[in-house]
């Protein structure tokens, strides 16, 4: 399956809107810690770019700073890699499922989405 077909298939399975969310952060797995850039966010997931691939199914944690309201706060999420593909010369695009059983994650995601651009990515597809 080509990368384009994989992205199109993922888009068709999305149930919730995705919002532009661009921040730098760190992703830590049991193997390494790498720098990431977030791409977008939803109530259950986040897409990130990195210089190294992350194996699907790998559990990781994300740490990033974000402006929530009038404050800069450090956010942490426990995630699981759903898929990872090479995205041209920019690096690897990884889709992460955020553990929704942790109440703090739900609250942080709701605050992020409330401050994101009002234009969702799902509406622009």
In brief, what are we looking at here?
With 125 residues, this protein is of the alpha+beta class. The protein is built from three helices and seven strands.
The stretches of 5 or more residues where confidence is low (pLDDT under 50) are 118-125
Largest beta sheet: strand ordering: 2-3-4-7-6-5
Could you describe the largest sheet, including whether it forms a barrel?
6 strands, antiparallel, barrel
The counted number of beta strands is 7
Sum up the overall morphology in one term.
globular
Beta-strand portion reads 35-45%
Give the count of helical stretches. Answer: 3
User: Order of SSEs, N→C?
Assistant: HEEEEEEEHH
Radius of gyration: 14 Å
Please state the structural category: alpha+beta
Please give the alpha-carbon distance between the first and last residues: 21 Å
The residue-averaged pLDDT reads 84
Helix content: 10-25%
Protein name: PilZ domain-containing protein
List the SSEs and their pairings:
Blueprint: H1 3-13, E1 19-20, E2 24-28, E3 33-41, E4 45-50, E5 59-68, E6 71-86, E7 92-98, H2 103-115, H3 121-124
Antiparallel strand pairs: 1-3, 2-3, 2-5, 3-4, 4-7, 5-6, 6-7
Protein name: PilZ domain-containing protein
Descriptive account of the structure:
It comes from Herminiimonas aquatilis. This is PilZ domain-containing protein. Strands 2-3-4-7-6-5 form a six-stranded antiparallel barrel. The protein contains three helices and seven strands, in the order H-E-E-E-E-E-E-E-H-H. With 125 residues, the protein is α+β, with helices and mostly antiparallel strands. The chain is 22% helix and 44% strand.
